[in-house]
Amino acid sequence: MSSENAEGDTSLNTDESDSDDYYNYDDVDEDVVFQDESERDPEYFEYCLITQEDAENMMDCFVDETAKKLKESRSVSRILLTLHHWDVDGILQRYNNDQRAFLTEARLMPEKSIPSLKPANECEVCFQYIQTPMQFVMQCGHTFCNNCWLGHVRVQLENGRALGIECMKCNTLVGSDNLLSLKLGSEDLKRFKFFLLNDQIKTHPLFQWCPGADCSAIVKAESCKAKRTVCSKCKTTFCFQCGLDYHAPADCIVIKKWVTKCQDDSETANYIQANTKDCPKCMICIEKNGGCNHMQCYKCKHEFCWMCLRNWTEHNREYYECSIYKENPQVANENSGLKAREALKKYLFYYERWYNHGASLRLETETRRKIDQKIHEKVNNNIGTWIDWQYLLDAAALLAKCRYTIKYTYPFAYYMEDGRKELFEYQQAQLEREIENLSWKLEREELYKRGDFENQMDIAEKRRRTLLKDFLIN
Q: I need a labelling partner for 233 at 20 to 30 A (CA). Which of 203, 283, 333, 383 fits?
């Protein structure tokens, strides 16, 4: 949930590749209607969109305040803030403990001054007489002409660098305010200010660029958390902390490890990406063309689970065991080859379910399109109004929302080793069962009443929120 952004737009619509607008669904439970939203919704997160001009002004204010506390220049203060992720208290402590050592470590002061072998009025790059000297004095004592500095800065701009530009003769850093005194051309100045802002935002924990394609929006939050963030400009949904696709309940470290592992083992996992399996009863080949994992063979009408191929009635019990990996208790006593095969078996178990729920999300986009078409036909035939059938679209949106969450429970479970794993797997199984029940109803919506959908939606969302409340890291 976002606070109102700088442009007055509070829309949270999203356009995820795996889903369509699914985070718009928000049930209202009468028992908690007066409860604070931050307590009711485990994904609640306050943030706002700001303009680049606003971001520049905020950064300049931070720099000015820090410069006053340190009694240093803006250039020095800005570099220290970006090097230490805007931790003002930490910077002040280290600065006061040993000023010279701190500045030397930050490359704002040389370890020892090396006298130049060149005359003071000669540039140390082009060796020409300095007619137009640079407008600032280097801490390291090196001297250059204005033209050489301008050329050096332009090269750095080609590499997208504004902060972190070094002296041309040593590694001493040059402050941005000093470089701005060189009177860059209008285009170079524009690029310099953009790269300067980019360098600052990338290091500030409370600011984040929207990762959407060709989007220049900046998000400012009250705290740095791995929470769902939605850009109201381009509708991109992402994790505020790492900038990747939103991945609750998995944290940023887990999801990065998981994505890397999937990339490394992609060839091994390719065989499970086929969209066909044999019916476990009549053995006829079946193609999965919907998001629901509750399958019914079109030939023999046998109902089974797409993931484990067991009879579906076995899933309709209290404990949905299809989502739980069974460790081999003897694996610790086996040789390295058998251990490796067991490790691969475990990975493929979780990967298949991760991949399958992503595929189901894409297939359910088509289900929602069909529902939308059916609603239009009903309304055109005077069978109710659009509002009368809106619950079907709400159900489709909630289904995608829940399936998105269940997808990311599998990387979380794969790396989970603490004593709460049994509780997590139980809640994961409960949520997965309700997801499949809702998916089954949506694909056969003509067989169910509005009350059936509303009850199923309420149960599914409560299961999802319960899991996130217990395991989402705040």
A: 203
Does 375 map to a domain?
A: yes
Query: Alpha-carbon Rg of the chain, whole angstroms?
Result: 29
Q: In terms of C-beta density within 10 A (0-12 exposed, 13-18 middle, 19 or more buried), how is residue 432 classed?
A: buried
- Known catalytic membership, residue 61: no
Active-site pick, 140, 292, 322, 402: 292
Structural domains counted in the chain:
2
The whole domain housing 302 covers 252-471
Residue 132 corresponds to which tokens in the numbers above?
A: 């137009």
Same domain flag for 349 and 453: yes
Domain limit, last residue, from 203, 235, 269: 203
d(CA 35, CA 33): 6
Tens-place pLDDT, residues 368-390: 898 999 999 999 999 989 999 99
Q: Residue 404: give its domain's CATH number.
A: 1.20.120.1750
